[in-house]
Fold these 2 entries.
Entry 1:
Amino acid sequence: DIQMTQSPSSLSVSIGDSVTITCRASQDITGYLNWYQQKPGKAPKLLIYAASRLQPGVPSRFSGRGSGTECTLTINGLQPEDIATYFCQQSFDSPPITFGQGTRLDIK
Amino acid sequence: EMQLVESGGGLADPGRSLRLSCTASGFTFADYGLNWFRQAPGKGLEWVGFIRSNTFSGTAEYAASVRDRFTISRDDAKSIAYLEMNSLQIEDTAVYYCSREDFALGYAMDVWGQGTTVIVSS
């Protein structure tokens, strides 16, 4: 199984900050990496697929990059509605589908 | 609007069974594979299982933690997927989500249900 390690696990942020979250895979996942946003009591929402492709309707302040075993999600100019937990997920080799542990953003 | 709606959650005694449903609308359900995930209180996302579209055999795969206890099936005529959960354990307590897997998006999950809560307790 491919293990996904996400960091940091939590982050205290201010509105307007730029935030970067990192996800490392236990093997090369050739860009099959997706990012989701989850707010309390809600289902996950797809933000980025294939490492860098923005899902339609997602604000352009969200961006993804990376390849090989490491990918990043960046939020430029954090907005109040971005306070949430973010998960990475590999879709290179499944089953099983595996996720990172999540990164929780909260207001500093 | 593409939508998935889960139902069937509730309270169950350990060892009992529950069947969850995932009803799709707004897209051609038969064309897609369907995943089930769960999330225990305060925890991350755990993959439960997956059923392929009938174009790709319609077979299912399961996480080791539920294999031999859970069964996923689908009824394309009704646009519904099912998660049959037998021999429920305390550790199965979670919110259960279904989601559509889109190969055009690198197998990302682009449509999710709102979740249904399963509580296993005596």
Note: Chain B has a mean pLDDT of 97.
Entry 2:
Amino acid sequence: GEDVEQSLFLSVREGDSSVINCTYTDSSSTYLYWYKQEPGAGLQLLTYIFSNMDMKQDQRLTVLLNKKDKHLSLRIADTQTGDSAIYFCAEVQAGTALIFGKGTTLSVSS
Amino acid sequence: GAGVSQSPSNKVTEKGKDVELRCDPISGHTALYWYRQSLGQGLEFLIYFQGNSAPDKSGLPSDRFSAERTGGSVSTLTIQRTQQEDSAVYLCASSLTATTDTQYFGPGTRLTVL
């Protein structure tokens, strides 16, 4: 497909792991990003991965990249209620702007 | 240091009026971007400035939209003869140099066209 695709909703319980998946469009994308948007707020950079990496870990966050399948995932360990937000996957190619998915709304219940 | 700032935070206007939205990028960032976030369309790229090069206007939805960047810093997005479908949150981002550098976003301007 031509769009960056994400599932629209994910609901988890506090303390569980959350996995948000994304399929991107272009195998030549150099960087892939995860942004977080809380209600009424702007976009906050969460983490990113360079295209020559398979995995990146940053505290509770783990990003996995499968270039063959153009699949990106974000795992949040020990999910907290403060993690409730919309998560956007984005790709960038040299000389272009970010191309975003529609966002995944993560709902965390206590 | 200061992040990307945008003003106003909210703007309500009447259909047919012109509006100007302002963006102050992070000091030292040479690349500046405008995006639009609306319910139906998600996050869309509008325009991109890089240094003194001609801007990439490929995302502008119509000729009612224009943007300029003065002195390589502050940018203004102008929407002429606003329509109700222009209602959205307009986000500005900046990055150090190229598009492959991390883009940092401002809080956005929520535009409502009545």
Note: Chain A has a mean pLDDT of 91.
